[in-house]
Amino acid sequence: MPENAKTGWLRVVGLGPGDAAMLTPEASQALETASDVLGYTTYLDRVPHRPGQVRFATDNREELDRARHALTLAAQGCQVALVSGGDPGVFAMASAVFEAMEHGLPAWRALDVAVIPGISAMFAAAARLGAPLGHDFCAISLSDNLKPWALIERRLRLAAQAGFVMALYNPRSKARPDQLAQGFAILRAELPPDVPVAFARAVGSAQERIHLTTLEAADPALVCMRTLVLIGTAGTRLVPRPQGGAFVYTSRSASA
Amino acid sequence: MPENAKTGWLRVVGLGPGDAAMLTPEASQALETASDVLGYTTYLDRVPHRPGQVRFATDNREELDRARHALTLAAQGCQVALVSGGDPGVFAMASAVFEAMEHGLPAWRALDVAVIPGISAMFAAAARLGAPLGHDFCAISLSDNLKPWALIERRLRLAAQAGFVMALYNPRSKARPDQLAQGFAILRAELPPDVPVAFARAVGSAQERIHLTTLEAADPALVCMRTLVLIGTAGTRLVPRPQGGAFVYTSRSASA
């Protein structure tokens, strides 16, 4: 913590999946000591109001603007918490902050800026299921806002050929209703039909819902923007429980 | 928490990278309420002693034995915390627990078993560096204890072709002094020589040390078992700071 209250800083804070039990002490401390808290409305709503603290809620699509705003405030001497769901380094705000810094005022590079990691959606979802990421894995965003869809298809194909468990972020939105089905078609050409697939929606929130299926049966209509899609491998196994449901894990062992 | 102290449970607890500021409240609570705490000596040493709590420290290589021991204690009515560094689902204890459950006593499947996620080494290291995982990424263990080295080579090649940022776990040990160099040779054949590479050692502990280099210059001799190796992509950028050092981030945008 800065001794002089006029020393500005920026913390890019990972809020985790939503449940306060998964918020780290260093994230809590940054939220408590910040003079200004910025974030997408959904995430900012999770941060308790504190007297005197200034809050800036913005739309999700304005990531670079929000990053510049945060850096500007820190350069003015504010203590800024820029909040992100999950981990800020995983398809979230941290990359936008350093992109804004690279192309922004030279003085921004000297600022006290740090990223505070959080429990990512993929690890929270994996923990609920068992240990589906128990072996080599990858994370791919299916959003084609910032990269061409052809590249996403290529990555899905190569990831399946490599035998990675996959965590698919941003799987489906109103603007992109059909791409997840195209993604599943690519994976079905590469992987066994009975590979386990999980739809993990809003894990760690009151709306949490887990749906377990197979690659063959996976129905994109059950997926929304808040769903994380996990694709297993030939080494991913189900352990059915007598009370219903099953644990899912990927074996630590693999053959060539 | 169970109302009846005789109801056994098992929590596979992620301790995070080491710093207590990164330990989640739900992990802390599991450690406080457990009757028995099990783990590899290095991780168990991080857990504060509590009067009446029984502790079992074991060697790192006995993962399945430790998992069976934890399930046996929970089946006997103990409240068991099985601790893991980082996140238990990432090259750690969670997969071993469900493997032991699948092949163990049928009654184990009915037990109250849950995984408590933690801040993984890869996300802690990424946060220290900036946002190197800012785009699609993968995690690969370089240990060939449980999979053939040929499969690891294949995954490195496909991951490079896919354009994934890579987090390499278990990069080098006394028993495997030369494989990391072989891995770098494969990556050099696929990626530009100036791709940023980071060696992040023991992030979140007193021994933390970060070394930033390029794929061309990366020296395997600087890497030990406690180092996480991060390999960038053509879209990974350095933002030099006037006070020395640089932030590293991977652009959210990519072209085909």
- The CATH first-level class of the largest domain in chain A comes to Alpha Beta
State the shape of chain A.
Answer: elongated
Tally the helices of chain A. 7
Low-confidence stretches of chain A: 1-5
Query: SS-based structural class of chain A?
Result: alpha/beta
Number of β-strand runs of chain A = 13
Range of strand content of chain A: 25-35%
Residues in helices of chain A, as a percent range: 25-40%
Quote the CATH topology of the largest domain in chain A.
Answer: Methyltransferase, Cobalt-precorrin-4 Transmethylase, Domain 2
> What's the CATH architecture name of the largest domain in chain A?
2-Layer Sandwich
CATH superfamily of the largest domain in chain A: Tetrapyrrole methylase, C-terminal domain
| Assembly category | homodimer
Distance between the termini of chain A: 50 Å
Mean pLDDT of chain A: 94
Question: How does the major sheet of chain A shape up?
Answer: 5 strands, parallel
Walk me through this protein's architecture:
- The structure is a homodimer of 256-residue chains.
- Chain A folds into two domains: 9-119, Cobalt-precorrin-4 Transmethylase, domain 1; 122-250, Methyltransferase, Cobalt-precorrin-4 Transmethylase, Domain 2.
- The first copy, chain A, has seven helices and 13 strands.
- In chain A, the strands form three sheets. The first copy, chain A, has a five-stranded parallel β-sheet with strand order 3-2-4-1-5, with helices on both faces. A five-stranded mixed β-sheet of chain A has the order 7-8-11-9-10, sandwiched between helices.
- In chain A, helix 3 packs across helix 4 and helix 6 packs parallel to helix 7.
- By secondary structure, chain A is an alpha/beta fold.
- In chain A, 28% of the residues lie in helices and 26% in strands.
- Chains A and B meet through helix 1, helix 4, strand 5, helix 5 and strand 6 of A and helix 1, helix 4, strand 5, helix 5 and strand 6 of B.
